[in-house]
Amino acid sequence: MNYSKQRELILDVLRQNPVHPTADKLYELVRPLMPSISLATVYRNLNLLVECGAVRKISGLDGSVHYDHCVEKHYHFICTCCNKVYDVPYNVAQDLELKLKSLTGLEAQSTELTFKGLCSDCQNSN
Amino acid sequence: MNYSKQRELILDVLRQNPVHPTADKLYELVRPLMPSISLATVYRNLNLLVECGAVRKISGLDGSVHYDHCVEKHYHFICTCCNKVYDVPYNVAQDLELKLKSLTGLEAQSTELTFKGLCSDCQNSN
DNA sequence: TTAAAAATGATAATGATTATTATTATCAAT
DNA sequence: ATTGATAATAATAATCATTATCATTTTTAA
After folding, report:
1. Which residues in chain A, range 39-58, keep a C-beta under 7 Å from any nucleic strand D atom?
2. B61 and B12 part of one domain
3. How many domains does chain A have?
4. Each residue of A77-90: pLDDT tens digit?
């Protein structure tokens, strides 16, 4: 995989944003910094970054797909009202793969744990 | 919500199938039993059944959406090779919502835990 | 049984993602 | 620095899953 300015920028913007944007949202964020960039390039590079492990996909509730740059193990909480994706610390559930292995024999390459509910913002606004 | 033959059949077929089909696959399975049924009806009823809690959505790896009739709490293992969805027993990780609450204060309405890896079939076929 | 409400089938519309294609950027080897 | 091979890009068309529309049919409750 060769270097490209577009891919670097996409990863940078993802790293500087804690919002877990969708491909479309990311396109919006990147465009002011590189107006000529194409939406297809955003999709293509997100797929490449996911493939090489630098970025993770998160499936939203409404079928939307969000992207998260990989730092350390953590989980997610998605608000059923505003659809925002929040981080949940790893210590909520540790070593799930070990438990899986010992109970079922299956070996997991990765694990996704996602909670759904009302975030505190949405609870208060009702 | 009124009764409908189509909805009853959709739920029956889902209950008798451990395969976690997609909407499209379910349409294929239902059509021989009721040739006049429409794909839109399958989608419409799956959404209604999800809304009323009789059926659960599972996000596949490739963006596909699978459906699972709700019986008791359990999790999933998706094969990265054949994309099949397997059930994982609840005792792999119990009471995650309680842990979430005590560590973050967030209250989860539902929890989805999904492992990804090679299923034993695909491991053997290599 | 009959009218109102809900559900259906058929199909068009939508929207997210991927494929295509001509052009441009990258990079190792001259 | 220049070249050639390859990979990446922008723009846009194509694809495919899902949803909306609407005329017709079923269901339900009075």
Report:
1. 39-41, 44-45, 48
2. yes
3. 2
4. 988 877 778 899 99
